Amino acid sequence: MQKALQYRDWLSTTTGGGATNPPPGNIRTGDDDEAIVKKLVTENAVVVFARRGCCMCHVVKLLLHGHGVNPTLFDVDEQNEAAVMNELSKIITAEEGSSATGANFPAVVVGGKLLGGLEEIMGAHISGELVPRLREAGALWL
After folding, report:
1. Are 27 and 18 in contact (CB under 8 A)?
2. Where the protein is mainly located, per its record (predicted)?
């Protein structure tokens, strides 16, 4: 039988310099955050960029899990916030032109395009646009 690691124990093993695999769906390294953000956005159907302990980020994750979507989660902390925000701004600028206002957390990327934060996700959910966008991105099959 395998021993389950507490989350705080897993954090101490990943920051101690040892090469460990992160749990499925969660990616957290501090090496080159801008390259990781770009790779996550291009390779995954749904990515949630969230601050640790943020209640709005938790609500977005619960909403997506409630729909049966298992998004890739990227925890943003104070050390990598600027790099992640810079890369997300580049993604927004490439999509919408130079008039983009910037991203806030939580930031949800669906199908390689920034869908938005909590307000945009909830608005899409209420209007019925969220499920078709998730299907189009390949996050839902039914």
Report:
1. no
2. cytoplasm
